[in-house]
C-alpha cells in the first residue's frame, strides 16, 4: 500500500494533453520565477486571440499551471503578470474578468502592463480609475506604466528577458520536459495499478484443496510476479539512465559555465592590466614631438608580457579572442612607436649633451658680453669719442671669443640641426656684437644730436669692477642668459634710427628688459656670490624665489621669444598684434608674478633695511630701491594694452587691424584675470587649497538672498528680508561666497580681505536666468534646489557676463561627462530552469 501512496502523490488530475494546444500557443506559462513571499509567477504574454479562448479552456490552463507548484507546496501564493502593452483597455478588462472568475489558486497580486500608445494608455487610465473598485473586491490589481515599474515588485533575476530580467526560460524546452515527466508519471501509474491488482488478487484468492490446482495457482502467481519484476527492473533502469543522462548534462553545463567564469576572470584581469599599461604609455605618445616623461625599461617589458599573455589566452580558445587580439595589437603599436621614439630621442639627447658641453665655455663668455653691452650708456655714446671708446672695448672683448661662437651659424645648424631651436639658429652672440659694432661705427663717423633717456637704466660701474658685480662667480640661478638676448644692442640700434614707430617700440622694450636684466644680475644673482654671501641674512637665502617671483621666466620669455618676434615688425608696426596673439599663452608668466607680489612686498618690508640691498643699490648707482624695480613687470603689463590702443589709432584699415584688436582683447583679459587672482589671494578662512578649484574666471560684489532651503530650515535665513552683501568668486570648479572686509585702522593695508562663507561645487549648480520684478537678478540653485540663492548684480551687463561664464562651465561639464561614457558590460551566467522542474518529480 506504500507503493500506491507514493504514486498517487506524483500524479496530477490534468495533463498537458487535456488542456489542448493552449499551452503550446503560450497563452500562459510558468517561468520558474518567484515574487514576494516566494509567490509563484504565472505570465500571460501578449496574445492577439485571447478573447477567443473559451472560458472553460482558460480555466483548465490556469488550473493545470497552478496544480504543478501546489502538488509540492499546497498553500503557495501566485502572482500574475498580464502583459498588454500592445493591446486595448477592452482586452485588459476582459482578461481581468476571466482571471477573477476562473483562477483556482491563492491569487496574491495581478500586475498589468498597460498599453504604450498614447490613446490606449489614456483610455486605460480612465477605464481603470472607474472600474478599480470592482476589480479590487475580487483580487488586488496594480496598473504599471512600463517594465521599469515591474522591477519594484519583482526582482530582476526572477523575470525573463522580455521584461528586462535575467531569468533563462525556453517555452519549447519546458513543454518537452513536462511531456516527459507526465509520460513517466503515466507509466508509473500503470505499473502501480498492475501491482495493486496483483496484490488484490493475492489477497482475495482462496486456496484450493487439490494439489494440482495449488500447483497451477503457484505457477500462475509466480509468472505474474516475474512479469511485474521485469517491469519494475525496466522502470528502475530507465530511471537510472535518465538520471545518468541528466547528471552528464548537468556536468557538461557546469563545466561550460565554470570555464566561462574562469575566462571572464582572466579577461577582467587582462583588461585592468591593459588599461594600466595603456594609461602609462599614452602620455608618452602624446608628448613624442617634444619630450618623453621618464619611462623605465620595465614599463616596455610589462607591455611585452601583456602581449604574450594575450596570445596565450587566444591559443586557449578564449571566448573573447577577438577583443584580446585587438588589445595585443594596440599594445604592440604603442610599444613600437615608443621604442622608435625613444631611440630617436636618445640620439638627440646624446647630440644635445655634446653641444651643451661645448656651450659651457661659450655661456660664460656670453654672460660677460651681455653684461658689457647692458652697461654701455647710450647717452655717453652720442659723442664721437664715446663711441670710439665703446667700439674699442667691444673689439677687445671679441678677441677672446671661444671657437664655438666664431664658427659660422650654418655650420652649427648642419651639425646640430636636430637639437638647435629656430631661435638659436637665427641669432648668435656674434650677430648681437656685429649689430652693436655697426651702430657704434656709425656714431663714430657722424655727429648725432644727443637725446636724454627717461626710463630707468643700468649705470656704468667704475672701471675697476667690484667683485660684487663680477659675472665671473658661479651661479645656480634659474636665469639663463642666451646669446640671442641682445637687449641693449636692440634698444640702442632702434634709438639710433629714431624715425620709425616700430623702432620706438623696440627702444621701450629694450630699456624695460635692461631694467629686468640689471635687477636680476645686480641683486638676485649677487645673493649667491661667495664674496658677499655673508651680507644677506641666512633666512633670506631660501626666500629668493619669493622676493623676485618668476622674474627670470619673464626675462627669458622676452629675451628668447618676444623681442625676436618684434624685430620682424620694425618695418610694419601693424603686425605687432600677430606677435602678441602668437605668444598669448606665454604672457601667463605675468599671472604668477602678480599672484606672488603680495608675498614679495611683505618680504621686502621685512628686509628692506638689509645692508646687502643698500650696498647693491649703491654699487649700481640707482636712485630707486629694489622695490621700484620689482614693480616694473606689473607696470609693463598695464602698458601693453596702452601700446596696442595707440597702434590701433594709426593702423585703422591696415592689414593687421584685426590682429591688433584681438591682441588688445587678449591683454585686457589678462589684466582682468590678474586682477581677479589678486583678489583671490586675499581670501581668508577657506580650509583647503584654492588651486584645486581651478582658475578664477569672475569676481565681484553682489546682493544675495537665501531664497529657499529644503529640509531643516534656519529661521535666521528665512527671516532675512534685507540682502546680504557678498563678494563672489567664480572658479572653474566652484563658486565661493565671501564677505569683504576693509581694515581702516592706522597702518592698515589698503588691499581688502575676503572672509570665506560658503562654497558651491559647479558640478551640482544650476541657474535660473530671469526673475520677475528685477532684470538684474538671477538665481543659483544647488543640489536639486536644496539650496537656492537669489543674486542681484550691480548692472545688467555684469549679470549677463556672469551668466555667460556659468553657462560655459556647465556646458563643458556635460561634454566631459559624455567623453567618460566608456563601459565594460559584465558577462552574465544563467542557471537552467531544469532544477525547478526536477523538484516536482
Automatic annotation (TrEMBL):
User: Gene3D superfamilies, alphabetically?
Assistant: Dbl homology (DH) domain, Pleckstrin-homology domain (PH domain)/Phosphotyrosine-binding domain (PTB)
Domain DH, chain residue ranges per copy: 512-677
Q: Where is each PH domain found?
A: 695-811
Q: Does the keyword Phosphoprotein apply?
A: yes
Ranges where the CRAL-TRIO domain occurs: 1-171
Check the record and name the PROSITE patterns matching this protein.
CRAL_TRIO, DH_2, PH_DOMAIN
Q: Which domain of life is it from?
A: Eukaryota
Sorted alphabetically, which SUPFAM superfamilies does this protein's record hold? CRAL/TRIO domain (SSF52087), DBL homology domain (DH-domain) (SSF48065), PH domain-like (SSF50729)
Similarity comment text for this entry: Belongs to the MCF2 family.
Q: What is this protein called?
A: MCF.2 cell line derived transforming sequence a
Organism source for this protein?
Answer: Denticeps clupeoides
Amino acid at each position: 500500500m506504500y507503493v500506491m501512496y507514493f504514486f498517487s502523490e506524483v500524479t496530477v488530475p490534468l495533463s498537458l494533453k487535456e488542456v489542448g494546444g493552449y499551452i503550446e500557443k503560450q497563452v500562459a506559462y510558468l517561468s520558474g520565477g518567484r515574487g514576494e513571499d516566494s509567490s509563484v509567477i504565472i505570465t500571460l504574454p501578449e496574445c492577439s486571440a485571447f478573447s477567443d479562448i473559451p472560458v472553460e479552456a482558460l480555466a483548465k490552463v490556469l488550473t493545470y499551471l497552478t496544480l504543478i507548484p501546489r502538488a509540492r507546496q499546497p498553500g503557495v501564493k501566485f502572482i500574475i503578470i498580464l502583459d498588454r502593452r500592445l493591446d486595448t483597455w477592452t482586452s485588459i478588462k476582459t482578461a481581468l474578468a476571466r482571471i477573477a472568475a476562473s483562477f483556482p489558486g491563492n491569487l496574491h497580486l495581478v500586475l498589468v502592463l498597460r498599453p504604450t500608445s498614447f490613446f490606449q494608455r489614456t483610455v486605460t487610465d480612465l477605464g481603470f480609475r472607474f472600474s478599480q473598485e470592482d476589480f479590487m473586491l475580487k483580487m488586488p490589481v496594480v496598473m504599471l506604466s512600463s517594465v521599469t515599474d515591474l522591477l519594484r515588485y519583482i526582482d530582476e533575476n526572477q523575470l525573463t528577458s522580455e521584461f528586462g530580467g535575467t531569468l533563462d526560460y525556453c517555452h519549447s524546452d519546458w513543454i518537452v520536459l513536462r511531456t516527459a515527466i507526465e509520460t513517466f508519471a503515466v507509466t508509473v501509474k500503470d505499473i502501480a495499478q498492475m501491482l495493486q491488482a496483483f496484490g488484490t488478487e493475492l489477497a482475495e484468492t482462496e486456496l484450493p484443496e487439490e494439489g494440482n490446482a495449488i500447483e497451477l495457482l503457484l505457477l500462475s502467481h509466480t509468472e505474474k510476479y516475474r512479469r511485474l519484476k521485469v517491469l519494475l527492473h525496466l522502470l528502475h533502469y530507465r530511471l537510472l539512465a535518465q538520471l545518468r543522462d541528466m547528471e552528464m548534462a548537468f556536468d557538461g553545463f557546469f563545466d561550460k559555465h565554470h570555464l566561462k567564469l574562469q575566462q571572464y576572470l582572466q579577461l577582467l584581469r587582462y583588461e585592468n592590466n591593459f588599461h594600466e599599461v595603456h594609461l602609462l604609455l599614452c602620455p608618452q605618445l602624446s608628448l613624442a614631438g617634444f619630450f618623453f616623461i621618464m619611462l623605465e625599461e620595465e614599463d616596455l617589458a610589462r607591455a611585452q608580457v601583456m602581449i604574450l599573455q594575450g596570445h596565450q589566452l587566444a591559443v586557449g580558445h578564449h571566448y573573447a579572442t577577438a577583443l584580446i587580439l585587438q588589445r595585443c595589437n594596440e599594445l604592440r603599436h604603442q610599444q613600437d612607436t615608443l621604442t622608435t621614439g625613444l631611440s630617436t630621442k636618445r640620439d638627440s639627447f646624446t647630440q644635445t649633451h655634446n653641444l651643451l658641453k661645448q656651450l659651457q665655455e661659450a655661456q660664460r663668455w656670453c654672460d660677460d658680453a651681455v653684461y658689457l653691452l647692458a652697461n654701455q650708456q647710450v647717452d655717453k655714446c652720442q659723442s664721437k669719442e664715446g663711441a670710439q671708446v665703446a667700439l674699442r672695448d667691444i673689439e677687445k672683448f671679441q678677441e677672446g671669443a671661444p671657437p664655438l661662437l666664431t664658427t659660422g651659424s650654418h655650420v652649427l645648424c648642419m651639425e646640430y640641426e636636430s637639437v638647435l631651436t629656430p631661435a638659436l639658429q637665427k641669432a648668435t652672440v656674434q650677430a648681437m656684437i656685429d649689430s652693436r659694432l655697426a651702430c657704434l661705427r656709425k656714431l663714430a663717423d657722424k655727429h648725432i644730436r644727443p637725446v636724454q633717456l627717461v626710463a630707468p637704466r643700468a649705470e656704468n660701474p667704475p672701471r675697476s669692477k667690484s667683485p660684487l658685480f663680477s659675472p665671473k662667480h658661479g651661479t645656480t640661478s634659474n636665469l639663463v642668459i642666451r646669446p640671442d638676448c641682445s637687449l641693449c644692442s636692440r634698444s640702442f640700434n632702434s634709438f639710433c634710427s629714431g624715425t620709425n614707430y616700430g623702432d620706438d617700440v623696440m627702444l621701450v622694450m629694450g630699456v624695460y628688459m635692461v631694467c629686468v636684466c640689471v635687477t636680476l644680475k645686480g641683486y638676485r644673482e649677487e645673493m649667491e656670490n661667495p664674496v658677499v654671501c655673508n651680507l644677506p641674512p641666512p633666512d633670506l637665502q631660501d626666500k629668493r624665489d619669493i622676493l623676485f617671483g618668476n622674474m627670470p621666466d619673464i626675462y627669458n620669455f622676452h629675451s628668447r621669444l618676444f623681442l625676436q618676434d618684434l624685430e620682424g615688425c620694425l618695418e610694419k608696426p601693424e603686425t605687432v598684434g600677430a606677435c602678441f596673439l602668437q605668444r598669448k599663452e606665454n604672457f601667463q608668466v605675468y599671472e604668477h608674478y602678480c599672484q606672488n607680489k603680495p608675498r614679495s612686498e611683505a618680504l621686502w618690508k621685512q628686509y628692506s633695511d638689509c645692508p646687502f640691498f643698500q650696498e647693491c643699490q649703491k654699487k649700481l648707482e640707482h636712485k630707486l630701491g629694489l622695490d621700484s624695480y620689482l614693480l616694473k613687470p606689473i607696470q609693463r603689463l598695464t602698458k601693453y594694452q596702452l601700446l596696442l590702443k595707440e597702434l590701433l589709432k594709426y593702423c585703422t584699415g591696415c592689414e593687421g587691424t584685426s590682429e591688433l584688436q584681438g591682441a588688445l582683447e587678449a591683454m585686457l583679459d589678462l589684466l582682468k584675470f590678474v586682477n581677479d587672482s589678486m583678489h583671490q589671494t586675499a581670501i581668508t578662512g577657506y580650509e583647503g587649497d584654492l588651486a584645486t578649484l581651478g582658475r578664477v574666471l569672475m569676481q565681484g560684489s553682489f546682493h544675495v538672498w537665501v531664497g529657499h532651503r529644503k529640509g531643516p530650515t534656519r529661521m535666521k535665513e528665512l527671516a532675512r528680508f534685507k540682502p546680504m552683501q557678498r563678494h563672489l568668486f567664480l572658479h572653474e570648479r566652484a563658486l565661493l561666497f565671501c564677505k569683504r572686509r576693509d581694515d581702516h585702522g592706522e597702518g592698515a593695508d589698503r588691499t581688502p580681505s575676503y572672509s570665506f562663507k560658503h562654497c558651491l561645487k559647479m558640478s551640482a549648480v544650476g541657474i535660473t536666468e530671469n526673475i520677475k520684478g528685477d532684470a538684474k537678478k538671477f538665481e543659483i540653485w544647488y543640489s536639486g534646489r536644496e539650496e537656492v540663492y537669489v543674486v542681484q548684480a550691480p548692472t545688467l551687463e555684469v549679470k549677463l557676463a556672469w551668466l555667460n561664464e556659468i553657462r560655459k562651465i556647465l556646458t563643458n561639464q556635460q561634454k566631459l561627462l559624455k567623453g567618460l561614457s566608456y563601459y565594460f558590460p559584465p558577462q552574465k551566467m544563467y542557471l537552467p530552469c531544469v532544477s525547478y522542474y526536477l523538484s516536482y518529480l
